Amino acid sequence: MLPDLLLNYTDYFQPLNLFNYITFRSIGALLTALIISLLFGQKVILLLKKIQKKGQPIRLDGPQSHIILKKGTPTMGGLLILLAFTISTILWAKLDNIYVWIILGVALSFGLIGLLDDWLKVSRMTSNGLKSYQKLIPQMLIAFLAAWLIGQNTPVNYQNSISIPFLKESLFFVGVFYVPFTILVIVGSSNAVNLTDGLDGLAIVPVMIAAASLAVIVYLVGHINFSTYLQINYVPGVGEIAVFLGAIIGSGLGFLWFNAPPAMVFMGDTGSLSLGGVIGVSASASRHELVLIIIGGLFVLETISVIVQVLSFKLTGKRIFRMAPLHHHFEQKGWAESTIVIRFWIIAVILALIGISTLKLR
Predict the structure, then answer these.
(1) Which of 155, 246, 261, 333 is most buried per CB count within 10 Å?
(2) pTM
């Protein structure tokens, strides 16, 4: 909105040219989302406490310490994140960019699914909300639309193709499998973040790290000079996603202020499904889906731990981990919650650096 309005007056006031630069607007979006989160965070938490009374229901089959330590903490804190990044994006992004609307649409739609799931849990006072298929089917339909729009708005020679890390300007043609693959990336990323969100501050920081990494990638991919120099595939317009990701980082920082141990609020599925979807769309739009496996490696590990645990128990009757997802395994081993969270943050940083390095190692 701001660039669309203010760039008309650059002839009268030259500093307004700053709104032409994605880097400037990304920082502006970050700071705006952060300020909104900090200003409204306490009010949102009080409202959630008033509505929920007893807070988020705690899983009885989870770590026993959670029943005592986390009882009464409200959920749906993702509403604060959605509010902050939506307002900030509308203010700072160029609204004629299709990628902005694709990613915003996925973020809000997935957030709505998560909100319904959280509400059912709170209203019924049970850890069971929507059934798996009730979440996955609408997610897949939304992801299908996003995948189709991404495919239609990228250069013809990139359509139905994905980039291969470590190879110069490489494309692997997947043909009719492109849309199903993109759906898998978006829905898989969304639910992977959801699985990771189990300890105070555990999910939001890796999300911000992934968002920062992807902001660098989409900016370089969307800039013809940088993409030519780095010998990566140039996708016009995709750089604008960096503004949205800046807003994600800002809203995440603001949310962390209230989610830091001991958490005053949980993001719930409202936040985790939305944020995971954003990461998936960003990687897909920039044609760096495979790099996302590295950057989001922590989320991948958490998801694999659940899959392996379920398969092992069904096939052999034995569990590989003391409890899944992976962070609960270390809790059961006696690690302090803060130790697990900080060590997982460190892993997320290392993986993000490796992922970004693929841009140059070609």
Answers:
(1) 246
(2) 0.94
